[in-house]
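Section handout, structural biology tutorial.
Before the tutorial, make sure you can parse a SMILES string by hand: atoms, branches in parentheses, ring closures as digits. In the record below the ligand is nicotinamide-adenine-dinucleotide, and the chain has 326 residues. In the tutorial you will relate the predicted structure tokens back to the input. Do not try to memorize them.
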Amino acid sequence: MVRKTIVLSREQVAKEIDLKEIIISIEKCFAEFEKGKDLLPPKYIVDLPGGIAACLTGYTKATNTFSMKMGQERKGNVERGLPTIFSTMNLYDPDTGELLLIVESVLATMYRTAAAAAVAVKHLGREDVETLTVIGAGQLGQQCIRAVSTVRPFKKIFLFDMRQSQADKVVNELSSEISIPIEVANSETACREADVICTATNSSEPIVRKDWVREGTHLSCMGADLHSKIECEPSLLPRCRLFADKVEHCKERGESSQAIESGVLSKDCYVGSLGQVIIGDVKGRTCNEEITLFDGIGLGVQDTTVAKSIFDQATLKNMGVHIAFC
Ligand SMILES: NC(=O)c1ccc[n+]([C@@H]2O[C@H](COP(=O)([O-])OP(=O)(O)OC[C@H]3O[C@@H](n4cnc5c(N)ncnc54)[C@H](O)[C@@H]3O)[C@@H](O)[C@H]2O)c1
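Predicted structure of the complex:
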């Protein structure tokens, strides 16, 4: 008999899906990706009259599932009073072709991205870190606070956003969930005080200055996923031991891409991928004084992994609407 498809809204994901499970799955995803058995077709972007549609796909051997995520961006929706981004993801059984899951995937994408930031902190951050700084209080920044704060026993969290009211709102919302004190701070204080910095903005101007980052800091840079975006001053990058989710992609579109273009960094600036660090092929942090930086622009296999984790959790909890398409 054909299996029914589980359909889940963003609200259901927010209420019921455990982010810690996703962090575990994403760590495994990075490690398994290095074995070369996954499939990662190129991202497909369509310029439509009203905006763009972007399609990401990926197959992972570890989950034996295939996903297809379709995101729609419509800047004109601001005037319509609608969100500017819509995204849904389908998860398939590649053996039978059955559609297992349809899930709203703006939040799922934030979960898998924040999980990547957290996995990087787990593998590259010092053991004795105490202070976490998150730059950006938007959708991704909020999930980065939730995810990264679970991988080390942080004592304090600083949050900076150029919209202070947004940062205040996020602190209010998260304070009941997270027992670590969270404080809104300016960018300089937030960076100077940090042992771990996680960037999660859509900025096209550097925010984190070279001289604000102290020795031994780890940075997870998640916001810059296009060449036009940048969050760190380029001269900071040569001070760092650099890692990527996928080196070739990050050189073109990640945090380092502008520094490479301007000659501040060479093309062989990355030590390796986070997956290589996890499986022990590449040395991560080499000493407590070193600054490490993880550049994550997002991979289709992370989408597949988060979709499978959501599918498994939804199946266990009997969540969502179950539809027989045929
Ligand atoms: N790496 C990945 O896999 C991945 C996945 C999803 C999103 N992203 C990227 O992450 C970024 C954030 O996404 P989001 O959905 O949270 O966006 P958002 O619009 O919800 O939040 C962005 C926040 O950044 C703040 N900001 C922008 N410029 C700033 C600056 N110069 N200084 C301080 N704060 C600033 C804004 O005020 C806003 O609160 C985007 O660039 C998005 O494309 C990356």
